[in-house]
Amino acid sequence: MAAPLIMRKTLRGLEPANDLAADILRKVKLGDTVRVDIKRPRSLQWHKRYWVLVGMISDNSPYTPDEVHALIKLRCGCAKIIQERNGNITCIPDSIAFNKMDGIAWAQFWERVVDYVAADLLPGVPKETLASELAQLVGVAA
Fold first, then answer.
1. 45, 96, 103, 139: which has the fewest Cβ within 10 Å?
2. 99 CB contacts (<8 Å, ≥6 apart)?
3. Which residue, 129, 110, 131, 112, is CA-closest to 120?
4. Rounded to an integer, what is the distance from CA 100 to the centroid of its chain?
């Protein structure tokens, strides 16, 4: 039985956070040993906030949204370095897909994004202002 379970930590320990998790957990017998991988799922609202930011930058720069997205990933540490046989080194943007980046990794990436955008792509806009405006637009905590 290899299924991801969404759990919630309570004073009693980890408990199922939804019906699917409860159903799967009921099938585990008392005394069974199971493997648990702790990951904080990423929020769809956080993802939406990122794409609102990308659009905002694109609207106020000569870059397309795809170019802004690639630039942010390259400058904020979401990239792969590839060395060719001839020794040439190329850096390409990596994925920010939900299955590639959990909530913890996303939060770290987001901090770098806000720092970079405030310093280089929208200079003069304090990062606190940027974060709070995005939070208001999307309805997610800054």
1. 139
2. none
3. 112
4. 9
